[in-house]
Amino acid sequence: SINMLDSGLIEEVEKLVNIYGKNCEPIRKNSYGVIEEYLDNKKNNREELIQKMLIVDRRLVKKQLTWWRRNRFISWMNVDEVAPYIIDKIS
Q1: How far is residue 56's CA from residue 37's CA, in Å, rounded to a whole number?
Q2: Which end of the chain has a smaller Cβ tally under 10 Å, C or N?
Q3: Full-model pTM
């Protein structure tokens, strides 16, 4: 999260909010919403922002993993099996 902040994530969120508004659902989800809240309320310090981002991102990852595990149409394979599988399918 720290590297993301240093790489311009706050500025990216500011631009997106200016274009799409605060109520845009993708902006309210994950760390973008936390950053937008931070921009509205400067009382939060950078460390609090980072901690909130970590919590929100962990929740999102957990939801995504749950979805992936429940999807019966996904075939999981080892990394070394992927390239041969793709080559076989496109050949």
Answers
A1: 13
A2: C
A3: 0.66
Which H/E stretch holds residue 6? helix 2-6
pLDDT score of 62: 94
By CB atoms closer than 10 A (0-12, 13-18, 19+), residue 38 is buried
Q: How far is CA 50 from CA 28, 30, 63, 68, 85, in A?
A: 16, 12, 20, 27, 40
What percent of the chain clears pLDDT 90, i.e. is strictly above it? 29
Please state at what angle helix 30-40 crosses helix 46-70, rounded to 10 degrees: 160
What values do phi and psi take at 5, rounded to 5?
A: -65, -40
Q: Is residue 31 packed enough to be buried (19+ CB in 10 Å), middle (13-18) or exposed (0-12)?
A: buried
